[in-house]
Amino acid sequence: MKAKVIRDNCIGCGACQAIAPNIFEIDDEGLSKTINPEVKKEDEEDFKDALESCPTGAIVEENE
Ligand code: SF4
User: Is the dihedral of CA 39, 48, 57, 64 positive or negative?
Assistant: First the structure.
């Protein structure tokens, strides 16, 4: 499973970084990016919580 941020939809609220700090960080532009797009097994729960919590639907799951 891979995490992706659609940056055009991100408003930089910081929720994803707060919920899943192993996966997301707010960058210099004030928008979220993935630290490592590959979601580790132990981070899957956090990833799903972040995906559901994003107010703009900017987080998507990419399956290979
Ligand atoms: S939760 Fe969504 S809108 Fe907020 S910083 Fe993360 S990707 Fe951007």
Answer: positive
